[in-house]
What we know:
By secondary structure, the chain is mostly helical. It is about 55% helix and about 0% strand.
Amino acid sequence: MPLSIAYMKAVMDNELKAVKSEIFAYPDELNLAISQNVPDVLMLTNYSWNEQLSLHFANHAKKSIPIVL
C-alpha cells in the first residue's frame, strides 16, 4: 500500500474526526464495501501499476450511485 494514502488517512483521522475513512488493500474488499454502501467520497491512488484498477472502481462506484430525480 502506498505511503501517501496512509498519510492522507492519518491526517483525516486526526483532523476530521467526524469523517469515517477506510483504506482497502485488496480489490475484493473494496468491491464488497462499495456494493454494500456507496461512499460519499472515493479517493483512489493513481500509479502506473494500478491505473486500470482505479478506473474500474471509479466506474463501479459511479454506477452504484442511486439516481435521484
